[in-house]
Design brief:
The chain has helices spanning about 15-30, 60-70, 105-120, 185-190, 195-210, and strands spanning about 5-10, 35-40, 45-50, 70-75, 80-85, 90-95, 135, 140-150, 155-160, 180, 210-219. The chain is α/β, with parallel strands linked by helices and about 220 residues long. Strands 1, 2, 6, 7, 8, 9, 10 and 11 form an 8-stranded mixed β-sheet that branches. It has a 3-stranded mixed β-sheet with strand order 4-3-5, with no helix packed on it.
Length: about 220
Amino acid sequence: MAVKLNIKNLGILEHQKAYDLQLEIMQKRINDEIEDTLLIVEHPPVFTIGTSGSRENIRVGSDFLNDAGIEVYKTNRGGDITYHGPGQLVIYPILNLKNHKKDLHWLLRSYEEVFIELLKEFDINGWRIDGLTGVWVGNEKITAIGVAVRRWVSYHGCAFNISPNLEHFSYIVPCGITDKGVTSLEKLLGQKVETEAVIEILIKKFTEVFKMEVINYER
């Protein structure tokens, strides 16, 4: 039987506000007050530093970041540093893994599978690189992934590049990886892609991979 899923499309929302909302929903999920929930959002420009990262992977100074309008946050997800900004689709799946599989490696691979399947809809071959988390096209990352769990309820999630300002990635060492690049769907296709169209495909692939049924979609 399919696991039930609520979806909330938050539009553009500051990273801290989205994080606070994650914690609120996660606690309700732990208490079994709500079903699994998928948050979909875009953030204003921000660098987030995970538990294995540091500010040393920011290549520019604070004044430069202020002028560029990019904030910096330390966060408790796994992974190193990444960038979020307009044109990047971020999902925060808040899932009770007791109803799925209590295995973080399985969770990461399943997230990757969602975006590999999504890219197939655009005739793009996304793939995994051994030892690295995320989805790649050639030698360039298109989906960054970082997760955390509390009492087997997941939070944080995935960032998929539709049409972000790729120059912003040059201000950091993305995910602490020095010998790989970053790409976007728009760059690969050479044309503009509507975010809503991508969201529609994303939801379809997410529910297929995780064997879920959408019971409510709040925009």
